Amino acid sequence: MKFKSQINRVLIGGGTHGNEFTGAYLIKLFEQFPELIRKSNFETLTLLANPKAFAAGTRYIDKDLNRCFLRQNLEDSTLSGYEDLLAQEIDHLFGQNGKTPVDFILDLHSTTANMGVTIIVDNDQPFNLQLAAYLSYVNPSVKVYSSGNSGRGDNSLRSLGKFSVAIEVGSVPQGVLNPDIFLKTEAIIYTILDYLELYNQGKVPAFPNTLIFYRYIEAIDYPRNEHGEIQAMIHPRLQFKDYEVLNPGDPMFLTFDGQTIPYEANSTTYPVFINEAAYYEKGIAMCFTEKQMITVE
Fold this sequence. Notes:
Strand content: 15-25%
Largest sheet: 8 strands, mixed
Distance between the termini: 7 Å
Mean pLDDT: 96
Structural class: alpha/beta
């Protein structure tokens, strides 16, 4: 792996969504025991990103914080919503022109979808892809999801870093601590920090440079009537089948009166975030992805 730039400061963020307890309580753990994330050649900072939402046990107060980091919004002095101002405050602290700019952001999330341990990359930066490839090599059960052109690389908290990934682990209900999910997330955090330390030393061990990942294609809404009301649910044969192939003609939705709505397309896809609770308000039943294998340079 080519050694290009030093990682000097790392930010671990949790509680970006206040009812995703796994990340929030891991931040609490690291605040109490900072030696757990201390490394020899970079500084590690922590952030409980949305403390008011966490205290209330809700995803957000006014709006989704993880959609508030568009540069034009960060520079808009007329905004007054809680999360808008919070995003500006976080940018002033950790953004590239901030008080303590960070080189790498690790944003912790959990999902009600059956995503297992997922690493989310928002772009094709070699650094992010190399890290993702390493993590999937160390733990073959890790899935890598590329948010691609979904816009997540522009408006999420992790967009503030030079480099970044998100950890998305599930399934776990909102507002619930699941010990298995907690421990899996904690373990992969330590693996990432170890990697960054080795990277700074130029000592990352050799590993296969091929990466299988799932690239975002589009978000799919539930069938709705003229009033915007949902008319069907995820089909039982698709529920909990994140990352599994969906072929043309396969059941996708089931209407309330028992009618199957199939997947109508000419190509296969691999749905993720199937039936994510937080996405109902966003009009998303699942995200279609394309499975790819690339060589990471």
